[in-house]
UniProtKB/TrEMBL annotation:
This is Cytochrome c-type biogenesis protein CcmF. It is found in: Cell inner membrane. It is a multi-pass membrane protein. GO terms for biological process: cytochrome complex assembly.
Length: 657
């Protein structure tokens, strides 16, 4: 560590490295103080641990700002800058270089984790969970800050000063979404550290009542919403950057972000049962432990080099370290849960199948099975390589679709009927009353879709279940508004409930977008000669011009095409550090009913023709709009409800004879 510090070789690197070492020192001290404060039940020692989070956050912030300044100033005395940036890169690309390579991405993770720990330190209640929650946060900080300060330091000075850097990965500067997707993803991943810390604190202290899940609900919801936005933003980046017209390929790194989302979604639903009925305590502990551990698994897959992915970093020394931390989390969680197993028993009998909690439990099982199947498909090639020594094994989309479609439809089915069922138990007649209007709406929507030409069974089922869900949400909203005396009043009184309804509506819109765009996408390729029309996919295409554009960091060839009279400009970008490798930048015209997507695949050096690929995808935009509804709904659930003013007590009439 100390040999990384050289004020002569790199003043920026020395300052950044010293700040990391200071942050590591305060992280270790904070961990020890938190453990001591919890063991002795000494609030003064716990207060010292709490204040240590402030020092860690300040020092990691200094390191992050130093690296960002080095990127913006083209300080090539820092090896990370020399290897992953260049003078000609636009400013926004230099900023994204902070997380565009392995060492910087781990530093960003550590900074966000320190930020969450700081916010937690100023919001923690003064209770028995306080020191142990801090200790769990410090344990994560010791690991991530320690990795940054040692095996993955971004502040190593260069051996020989260079005039210009190598530049970033060209694929990561081809679209501005690179400035959004990774940050959202890290915010979601790191956000799960807080509910995990509270779960550890509850297990250590034995205080496994509803308190810890109530305290962490908002933290979990924020992390879940950020993770949802991050996953879909990554799909948008893929859609706009890779030139294939898709948004999800069941790529190993994509899967690694999806697994925590599935487990966290299950956790958000099951904590409602613990709050309301005192059930599923063991479930909730395991779900949040596995959700946080799966974020570390995703980080391991992304940075170890053991999986092949356009999203993954090259292999480095951090893989074994992350694997060890993952093993530590799982072992510690298992031992704590086994130790407190008698205290994790539920207050009441297991939920009845025909009840709201029964529907939630069934949904939880589907989420967990979904996550396990995605994990199996993701790790299968790695397991084959470890056992047989060959790296040609792969798991394609057909494997994932075989279980994802039925499980997704099952979740849509439960999502509609669950909120309509009563707590504890519903009789058969009550179940039929709840289901009958929903089933009628679903069958009616499926028949209408069939009349309009939809023939695919999975799409018909999605349409039916979407109508079924939307009617259920409408009935719930109408019923509550009638009881409260108006929609506005019930929205103010129960924002949590109606935020959840809005998020569910967003998921329905998203599901329709996935079903139609994945099933009814049309794709064709053609070579266009200059000013000659071609009819393709019921569209008229005409190449009207080819233009060479020189940029400071490379050049672009722009094909100007008219599609049914509307102008499209598709690009092939090359970058200085990428040689002659072209990176497509498609032209997309978004529409409510479908997108027209044009990507250039080849071009004549003489400027007489261009080969293009035309893709027509129905309802793709519904994915982006549905995600927006999900996130707005999640934000709405965080609003503090307004309590209706209590009526003044009636005055007693004077007594009379």
């Amino acid at each position: 560590m100390l040999n990384l510090i050289s004020w002569t070789s790199s003043a920026s690197g020395a300052l950044g490295q010293l700040s990391l070492l200071g942050a590591l020192l305060f992280s270790v001290a904070g961990l020890l103080l938190a453990l001591l404060g919890g063991a002795r039940r000494d609030p003064r020692v716990t207060e010292a641990a709490r204040r240590a989070t402030w020092a860690v956050f300040a020092l990691v912030s200094v390191s992050t700002l130093v690296l960002l300044a080095a990127l913006l100033r083209d300080d090539f005395t820092v090896r990370f800058v020399a290897e992953h940036s260049m003078r000609a890169s636009p400013t926004w690309v230099k900023v994204t270089g902070l997380w565009g390579a392995l060492e910087g991405s781990i530093l960003l993770w550590a900074w966000l984790l320190a930020g969450y720990a700081f916010i937690l330190s100023v919001t923690l209640r003064r209770d028995a969970l306080r020191p142990w929650a801090l200790a769990a946060m410090f344990a994560s900080l010791v690991f991530f800050v320690g990795v940054c300060a040692t095996v993955a330091s971004p502040f190593t000075p260069v051996a020989t000063l260079v005039a210009d850097g190598r530049g970033p990965n060209p694929a990561l500067q081809n679209h501005w979404m690179m400035a959004v997707h990774p940050v959202l993803l890290y915010l979601g991943f790191v956000g799960l550290s807080v509910p995990f810390a509270y779960a550890v604190a509850a297990l250590v202290t034995g205080r496994l009542s509803d308190h810890w899940v109530v305290v962490t609900r908002r933290w979990t919801l924020v992390a879940w919403a950020l993770l949802t936005a991050a996953i879909v933003a990554g799909g948008w980046w893929s859609y706009e950057t890779l030139g294939w017209g898709g948004y999800w390929a069941w790529d190993p790194v994509e899967n690694a972000s999806f697994i925590p989302w599935l487990l966290t979604t299950a956790f958000l639903h099951s904590i409602q049962i613990q709050e309301r009925r005192g059930l599923m305590r063991s479930w909730n502990v395991w779900l949040i432990v596995l959700a946080y551990a799966s974020t570390v698994l995703g980080t391991f897959l992304n940075r170890s080099g053991i999986v092949q992915s356009v999203h993954a970093f090259a292999g480095g020394p951090v893989g074994p370290v992350f694997l060890g931390f993952l093993a530590f989390l799982l072992l510690a969680g298992t031992l704590l849960a086994a130790w407190r197993a008698p205290h994790l028993r539920d207050d009441n009998d297991p939920p009845a199948a025909l009840s709201r909690e029964g529907a939630f439990l069934a949904g939880n099982w589907l989420f967990v099975v979904f996550a396990v199947m995605v994990l199996v498909g993701t790790l299968f090639p790695t397991i084959v390589e470890a056992v047989q020594g060959r790296r040609d094994a792969s798991v394609g989309p057909a494997f994932y679709n075989a279980f994802a479609i039925p499980l997704g439809l099952g979740l849509l089915l439960l999502m509609g009927v669950g909120p309509l069922l009563p707590w504890r138990r519903a009789d058969g007649q009550g179940l039929w009353r709840a289901l009958r209007p929903l089933l009628i709406a679903g069958v009616g929507a499926a028949l209408l879709a069939l009349a309009l030409g939809v023939r695919h069974p999975g799409v018909l089922a999605t349409v039916a279940l979407s109508a079924y869900n939307l009617l259920g949400l409408g009935l719930l909203t109408t019923r509550a508004a009638r009881q409260a005396g108006g929609l506005g009043r019930t929205l103010r009184a129960q924002p949590r409930r109606y935020g959840a309804y809005l998020s569910h509506a967003g998921l329905i819109v998203l599901a329709l977008g996935l079903a139609f765009s994945g099933t009814y996408r049309r794709d064709a390729q053609v070579t266009l000669n200059m000013n000659q029309g071609v009819h393709l996919l019921n569209e008229d295409l005409t190449l009207t011009g080819l233009e060479n554009v020189t940029r400071p960091d490379g050049r672009s060839i722009v094909a100007r095409v008219l599609i049914d009279g509307r102008p499209f400009s598709a690009r092939l970008n090359t970058y200085t550090q990428g040689g002659d490798t072209p990176f497509p930048s498609p032209a997309v015209r978004y529409g409510l009913t479908g997108d027209t997507y044009l990507v250039m695949t080849g071009v004549d050096p003489e400027g007489q023709w261009a080969s293009v690929r035309l893709i027509e995808s129905p309802l793709v935009s519904w994915i982006w709009w549905g995600t927006l509804l999900v996130c707005v709904g999640a934000a709405f659930t965080l609003v503090t409800p307004r309590r209706a003013p209590q009526a003044a007590p009636a005055r007693m009439a004077p007594a009379t004879d």
